[in-house]
Amino acid sequence: CQASSPVSSRSYLVDGKVDGKDTRSCKRGQGLIKSGERTYLPFKGKTMAMIFAKPSMRTRVSFETGFVLLGGHALYLGPDDIQMGKREETRDVARVLSRYNDIIMARLFAHQDILDLAKYATVPVINGLTDYNHPCQIMADALTIIEHIGQLEGTKVVYVGDGNNIVHSWLSLASVIPFHFVCACPKGFEPDEKTVEKARQTGISKIEITSDPKEAVRGADVVYSDVWASMGQKEEAAYRRQAFQGFQAMFGIKNLVRKKKIEKVDTALMELAGPQAHFMHCLPAERGVEVTDEVIEAPNSIVFPQAENRMHVQNAVMLHVLGL
Ligand code: CP
Ligand code: NVA
Q1: Where are the transmembrane segments (predicted)?
Q2: Is the ipTM of this complex over 0.90?
C-alpha cells in the first residue's frame, strides 16, 4: 500500500485488525484485501437493504462486500423485487424497510424517489445513484485524487462528455472543496443550469462549462470521462454518438492522427493535457466510444484504484451515518 499510495489508514480492510499487523507492504487490489481474520466488525448484527432499480457492478459489490467485511448482512433487492412506485408506494417501502434494516441504500431513476425514501425512512438512506447525481462515486474520486496527486484543493479536474449525474456530483463537491472544475460537453448536453449556478454562488471553486474540450484539458491534473448515454438513456445511444462526434476526436485514434498528426496516439489526449494529467472514469466505460483502450490502459490511468475506493469511502459513510 505504501508504495502505491500515500494514504494507508485502512488496515482494518486489509487484515481485519485496526491495530493489528503492519500491512504497509501489501499490494492493494491483488487479493489481500479479501483475506485474513477480521476482528473489527462494527456492523455485526446489522442489516442493509440495497434497492436497485438499475443495473450495477461496482455499487452493488462494493456496498455488499464492504458491509459484510465489517460484520454486517446486506440484502440485494433487484428491479423485480420491490418495483418501487409501481408495486408499492415509495413511502410504504421506506417505512417497512426501516423496520427490518439499519440502513437503506438505493439506486433509482428519479431523484425525487430517493428524497421521498429519505423523507419517510426512519433509518439512514444512502444514494447509490439517481438520474440526477452519484455522490458515492465522487467521494471515491476525491479520495483517489488525494492518493495519487496529494490533494484535491487547487487541482484542475476536466470532465469531457455528457453533462450528467456525475457532473452534478462534481459540482456538489466543488461547492465544499476549492478546486478548478471544467465540464467540456457538446452544446445541448450541459449540466443542469440551476445546479451550476448554485455551485458557482458558493464561490468555493472556479467552475467553467465549455464546448471546447481541446482548450479545456490544457494543464489538467485529471481528465475524467463517462458514458455518453447513461442508464435510462440507452435508446438515445445512436443519436448521442452522432451528437458527441467532436468529442470522440479527442480520444479517437484515427481522428487524432488525421487532425492533430500526433504519433503517440495512445497518450495523445493526455499529451494535450500535459504530463501531470491522470485519466479517470467512473466505469463502466464504452471503450472505443468515449475513451480508447490506449487511454484507459495507459500508466497514468487510475480507473481501477478509483473503482476500489468506492468500497473504502462507502464504508466510511456507513460508519458515519450509523454513528460508529
Ligand atoms: N461507477 C458505478 O457506479 O458503477 P456501477 O454502475 O457498476 O455500480
Ligand atoms: N452516468 C452513468 C454513470 C454510471 C456509473 C449512468 O448514470 O449510467
Answers
A1: none
A2: yes
Cell 494543464: give the residue: 219
Q: Is residue 137 in contact with ligand 1, taking CB distance under 6 Å?
A: yes
10 Å Cβ neighbour count for 275? Answer: 8
- Give residue-wise pLDDT tens across range 158-216: 999 999 999 999 999 999 999 999 999 999 999 999 999 999 999 999 999 999 888 89
CA distance 277 to 235: 33
Centre of ligand 1 to C-alpha 58, Å, is 4
Ligand 2 pocket check for 166: Cβ under 6 Å:
yes
> What is the full DSSP assignment across 70-102?
TT-EEEEE-TTT--BTTTB-HHHHHHHHHHH-S
Q: Is 185 part of the annotated catalytic residue set?
A: no
User: What's the rounded Cα separation, in Å, for the pair 308 and 13?
Assistant: 12
State the ligand closest to the CA atom of 310. 1
Distance, in Å, from the CA atom of 226 to the CA atom of 231, rounded to the nearest integer, reads 12
Ligand closest in space to the Cα of 227: 2
Q: Is 59 in the pocket of ligand 1 (CB under 6 A)?
A: yes
Enter the C-alpha cell of residue 305.
484504484
Return the C-alpha cell found at 3: 508504495
Q: Cβ(243)–Cβ(189) under 8 Å?
A: yes
Cα separations in angstroms, 53 against 19, 111, 114, 240, 260: 39, 12, 11, 23, 43
Provide the whole-model pTM.
0.88
Catalytic residue among 1, 26, 185, 282: 282
β partners of residue 126: 105
Mutual orientation of helices 135-149 and 165-173 as an angle, nearest 10°? 60
Best mutation site among 54, 56, 281 for ligand 1 pocket (most ligand atoms within 8 Å of CB): 56
- Report whether 68 contacts 14 (CB < 8 A): no
Nearest to 159 by CA among 205, 201, 213: 213
For residue 12, the model assigns a pLDDT of 42
Question: 288-312: per-residue pLDDT in tens?
Answer: 888 888 889 988 899 999 999 999 9
